[in-house]
Design a protein that fits this description.
The complex is a heterodimer of chains A (about 160) and B (about 210).
Chain A: E1 3-4, E2 7-13, E3 20-23, E4 32-39, E5 47-51, E6 59-66, E7 71-79, E8 82-85, E9 96-102, E10 112-120, E11 124-132, E12 141-145, E13 155-161
Antiparallel strand pairs in A: 2-13, 3-12, 4-9, 4-13, 5-8, 5-12, 6-7, 6-11, 9-10, 10-11
Chain B: E1 32-39, E2 47-49, E3 59-70, E4 77-84, E5 92-102, E6 105-116, E7 119-127, E8 136-143, E9 152-160, E10 164-174, E11 183-187, E12 198-205
Parallel strand pairs in B: 3-7
Antiparallel strand pairs in B: 1-12, 2-11, 3-8, 3-12, 4-7, 4-11, 5-6, 5-10, 8-9, 9-10
The chains are: A mainly beta (about 160), B mainly beta (about 210).
Chain lengths: ~160, ~210
C-alpha cells in the first residue's frame, strides 16, 4: 500500500540577517530529511551543517565543484561542522540554492551520511558527500555560515521522508 | 489524512458546518509516495523490487533512496549495480562524474562504458573495510520507467566518506523499451549487503 510522504516539517524565512538557523525537536518517526535553502549572504560565505549541536571534530566531507573554467575535488576531515557548499553567495544576484539530504537520520546504528547539491547560477555548481561520525539519532539540524550572515529573505525548508 | 471520528463529526451531534468537510481535514493528495522498503536484518546478496507493473497506472517516475554497506573487506568501497526486468544481457550503459579523495590525493574523473550487463547506481559505497558504522548513500531517479516506447534512463547522486571518499553524479541507460516491472540491486565485488543496509522505493505521480 503506497504511503504518502515528503512531509513539510518547517520553513524558516529570515526577517533579519542571521549567521545560522536551527530546526529543533525533529520528530523521529521518519527516515530521511531533506533541507532546501535559497539564500543571499551579507558577505561571501560558505554554508555548513551541524547536527545535534555537536561541535566536535566529527564531520567529514568530499566535494566536487565546477565553475566553467575548472572542475575541482577536495576533502575536509575532522571538521567541527560539515561543509555543504563552498559556492560564495553575495548580497545581490542569483541566490545560492542548496538541497541537503540527511539519510537515515533517526537510525541509531549508523554514522549519518549526507548528500548535498548546491548551485548559484552566476558562480558554480557543486556536489558534496558528508559523514557525521556519530550513531546518535538527529534531533536538530543547524545551517550556519563560515563567516557573515544569511541575508534577510533567505528561506530554509525541512522535509521528512518515510521508509 | 486525519479523519474526524463519526461521533465527533457533527452528524450525530447535529453541529452545523459551513463546508461539506464537516470537521474533516481537506483531502491533500500526495504526489510522492513510499512504495516499498527493505531494511536488512541479515546480510543479503541482492535486493529486488518486483511487481512494479502494479504501479504503472499511478506513477510517472520512481526514486530509490538507499543507505548501503557491503561485506567486501579488500577495499573500503564497492560499486552497486542495477538491473531491470531480470535482463542480464549487454544492454546497459554507464556514465559517471566522480570526485574522489584517498590518502591526501584525488581529483575529478569522468568515466563511461557501453554494452554493460548492468548500470552502476554507485561506483563507491562503504564496505566492511571502511570505518565502522559508516554507510554510503544513494538517491537515484528512474525516469518514465513504465513507458513502452522509450529506453529507460537512470540518474543518481551517490556519496560515501571513509579512508576513501567519493561523491558522484551518475547516469545509466537500459537499451530496451519494455516497461519496468523489476529492479535488482547488487554489490559488484562484495557478496552481500550487510545488516542495516536500507533500500526504499518511491513513486512520483503523473499529472492528470
Amino acid at each position: 500500500m503506497p504511503t504518502p510522504t515528503y512531509i513539510p516539517l518547517q520553513t524558516i524565512t529570515l526577517g533579519s540577517a542571521a549567521s545560522s538557523v536551527t530546526f529543533a525537536s525533529i520528530p523521529q518517526t521518519y527516515r530521511d530529511l531533506i533541507m532546501v535553502a535559497s539564500a543571499l549572504g551579507s558577505v561571501t560565505l560558505e554554508a555548513r551543517v551541524r547536527l545535534n549541536s555537536d561541535s566536535g571534530s566529527n564531520y567529514h566531507s568530499v566535494r566536487m565543484s565546477g565553475n566553467g573554467s575548472s572542475a575541482t575535488s577536495a576533502s575536509l576531515g575532522s571538521q567541527t561542522s560539515g561543509s555543504i557548499s563552498t559556492i560564495a553567495t553575495a548580497t545581490t544576484g542569483g541566490a545560492l540554492q542548496i538541497e541537503l539530504q540527511v539519510m537515515d537520520y533517526s537510525a541509531t546504528d549508523k554514522h549519518k551520511t549526507m548528500l548535498a547539491r548546491s548551485d548559484q547560477s552566476a558562480v558554480a555548481t557543486e556536489a558534496v558527500a558528508l559523514r557525521w561520525a556519530s550513531t546518535a539519532a538527529v534531533t536538530t539540524v543547524q545551517i550556519l555560515t563560515s563567516t557573515g550572515d544569511f541575508a534577510i529573505g533567505a528561506t530554509f525548508s525541512l522535509y521528512a521522508i518515510e521508509a | 489524512m486525519a479523519v474526524t471520528k463519526l461521533s465527533t463529526s457533527g452528524l450525530i451531534s447535529f453541529a452545523r458546518y459551513n463546508t461539506l468537510l464537516a470537521g474533516n481535514a481537506p483531502f491533500d493528495p500526495s504526489s510522492y509516495d513510499l512504495l516499498a522498503t527493505e531494511i536488512l536484518t541479515s546480510a543479503q546478496g541482492s535486493v529486488t523490487f518486483a511487481s512494479l507493473g502494479d504501479y504503472a497506472s499511478d506513477y510517472q517516475h520512481l526514486q530509490i533512496r538507499a543507505v548501503v554497506r557491503t561485506d567486501r573487506t579488500s577495499a573500503s568501497s564497492d560499486p552497486v549495480t542495477l538491473q531491470f526486468n531480470g535482463n542480464t544481457g549487454t544492454n546497459y550503459s554507464r556514465h559517471g562524474l566522480v570526485s574522489y579523495q584517498f590518502g591526501g590525493s584525488g581529483g575529478v574523473v569522468s568515466n563511461a562504458a557501453s554494452s554493460q550487463t548492468s548500470i552502476l547506481l554507485s561506483q563507491a559505497v562503504n564496505t566492511n573495510g571502511a570505518t565502522a558504522n559508516s554507510f554510503g548513500a544513494i538517491v537515484g531517479d528512474i525516469l518514465d520507467p513504465f513507458s513502452s516506447s522509450k529506453n529507460t534512463t537512470v540518474r543518481a547522486l551517490p556519496g560515501m566518506n571513509a579512508a576513501f571518499s567519493a561523491v558522484e553524479l551518475r547516469s545509466g541507460g537500459f537499451f530496451n523499451t519494455a516497461s519496468i516491472y523489476e529492479i535488482k540491486l547488487e554489490p559488484l565485488v562484495g557478496s552481500n549487503f550487510v545488516t542495516g543496509s536500507r533500500f526504499s522505493l518511491y513513486g512520483l505521480k503523473a499529472g492528470a
